[in-house]
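Give me structure tokens for this 185-residue protein.
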Amino acid sequence: MHADQIVPIKYSLATHLLKVVVALYLLLTVILTSIHLYTEFSRTKARVMQELQVIQETFAPGLAKALWDMNLEQLQPTFLGIVHYPTVIGVKLLNEQGAEVGAAGIVTDEQGEAVQVNPEGKKGPVKGYSGIFSSTAPILHSRKGKQLTMGKVIIYSSTGIVFEMLKPGFMLIMLTTLIKIVAVW
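Here you go.
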């Protein structure tokens, strides 16, 4: 070979193959990282839903008693106690006819829009709040060996809470992904 026939390194077959391998690695890394993040999000949301169900079971007897006794003043402290849980943004109690008896925090209205309920029970719109999900459970009262349905409780959470719970793990995943990409490059 003559010196004028040598192919520059940037046009060589080895350079092209290296670019293809790195591009495939980057694509595979992005796909697998996305799948991992989606799986972690789903798992964390399921944990939040389980926690909402535990909260419902914990407070259901008190809510049933308040509904049975028609002691609506007893509801507000209970609502405020429920809303203080880190995974809860709001709570709503409906009677057996489906009419709202009380609410606290951020809940959805009849149109599915997010509204903020202040301590006095007045509702106002919440701008830019989305990703609300809820868990609903019946409120049952035992009377003479029978279970009477008194209404239902809806406890609300949001994807924002799920993302906050995921943030430390997300940062670790992104850091390790970045280190792998730099190492391959």
